[in-house]
């Protein structure tokens, strides 16, 4: 069965009309690109290096001139409207990373009402997979909006160790704190161990306020490498890094309830969020089955979600 390359809608070849509107301003765009990653990479001055998914995940910029298919930036005089990522250059199942990120983003949006950077699964001209996401840091007039990640906001020494999710949450407005709690639980359950401070941002609104930006870079990192349950410590007590060697902190719903309370979120709201996640496990599996992942990657994705839900519901926090 064919599925939409945007929302994974059944019986759809290419993009459904809704995704054409959201992603391409009602233009009909083929999921088969007419260029390869090499056409973009030669315009990039070096690649980021590191040992995390984000440290080795390459990205480039593409545009869509009026009436023309997506093209690499600088081919025409057009602002980059989209970010494009090829498959990972290393780690386990590197060719599955575009489908992994696309699936995880769609689960966040469709099952948990998390605002995301709108995205699509596509293929380069040579057939290799690509992840494409529409930039949210421009308004409808094409004017650049201010965006600031939390390394900058918190004046952190690095993106992993110097601050905690509690530090981030306490900075946010009350409404954004609820959104942030939902995003953290989602990333835990779907195996994203790389939500560091550069992957959490504020975005300027039409009124000039700085609010939590749509989520981006969501993926099940556990498919590709052995990763932490969470990229940062949840609490200021540094629960992960303060344990003796050989022990790890296993999060459960009580930890996220406590996190919500520290952010002064009403208990009734916290309970509703926890209940929502507990009810959606089987629906996550349904979306995995519809995704563009290989059968092997689908199995790994599901198994990881199952294990994370078990941790989420457990009573013990420390495992030797």
Overall 3D shape: globular
Q: How many strand elements?
A: 10
Tell me which CATH architecture of the largest domain applies here: Orthogonal Bundle
- Classify the helix fraction into a percent range: 25-40%
- Main beta sheet: 5 strands, antiparallel
Number of domains: 2
Q: Class by helix and strand content?
A: alpha+beta
Distinct helical segment count: 11
**Text of the CATH class of the largest domain:** Mainly Alpha
Overall description:
It is a single chain. This protein is an alpha+beta fold and 320 residues long. The chain folds into two domains: 17-134; 147-319, Phosphatidylinositol 3-kinase Catalytic Subunit, Chain A, Domain 5 (Orthogonal Bundle), CATH 1.10.1070. Helix content is 35%, strand content 11%. The protein has helices spanning 17-24, 37-41, 53-56, 97-112, 150-153, 165-171, 174-189, 253-262, 267-279, 281-290, 295-313; strands at 60-63, 71-72, 82-86, 119-123, 129-134, 147-149, 201-204, 210-212, 248-249, 318-319. The protein has a five-stranded antiparallel beta sheet with strand order 2-1-3-5-4. Helix 4 (97-112) crosses helix 10 (281-290), helix 8 runs antiparallel to helix 9 (267-279) and helix 10 runs antiparallel to helix 11. The radius of gyration is 19 Å and the shape is globular.
């Amino acid at each position: 069965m064919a599925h939409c390359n945007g929302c994974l809608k059944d019986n759809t070849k290419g993009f459904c009309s809704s995704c054409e509107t959201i992603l391409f301003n009602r233009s009909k765009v083929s999921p088969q690109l007419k260029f390869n990653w090499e056409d973009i990479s030669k315009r990039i001055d070096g690649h980021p290096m590191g040992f995390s998914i984000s440290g080795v995940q390459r990205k480039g910029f593409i545009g869509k001139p009026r009436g023309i298919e997506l093209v690499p930036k600088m081919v025409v005089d057009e602002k980059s409207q989209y970010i494009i990522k090829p498959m990972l250059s290393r780690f386990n199942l590197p060719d599955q990373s575009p489908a992994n990120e696309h699936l995880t983003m769609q689960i966040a949006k469709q099952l948990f009402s998390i605002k995301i950077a709108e995205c699509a699964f596509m293929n380069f001209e040579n057939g290799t997979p690509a992840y494409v996401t529409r930039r949210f840091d421009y308004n409808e007039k094409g004017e650049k909006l201010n965006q600031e990640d939390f390394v900058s906001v918190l004046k952190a020494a690095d993106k992993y160790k110097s601050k905690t999710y509690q530090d981030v949450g306490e900075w946010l407005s009350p409404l954004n704190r609820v959104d942030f709690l939902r995003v953290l639980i989602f990333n835990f359950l779907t195996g994203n161990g790389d939500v560091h401070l550069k992957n959490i941002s504020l975005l300027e609104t039409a009124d000039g306020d700085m609010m939590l930006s749509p989520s981006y870079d969501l993926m099940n990192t556990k498919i590709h490498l052995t990763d932490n349950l969470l990229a940062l410590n949840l609490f200021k007590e540094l629960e992960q890094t303060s344990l003796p060697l050989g022990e790890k902190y296993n999060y459960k719903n009580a930890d996220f309830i406590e996190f919500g309370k520290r952010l002064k979120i009403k208990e009734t709201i916290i309970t509703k969020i926890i209940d929502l996640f507990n009810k959606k496990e089987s629906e996550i599996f349904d979306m995995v089955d519809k995704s563009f992942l290989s059968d092997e990657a689908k199995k790994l994705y599901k198994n990881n979600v199952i294990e994370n839900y078990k941790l989420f519901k457990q009573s013990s926090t420390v495992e030797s």
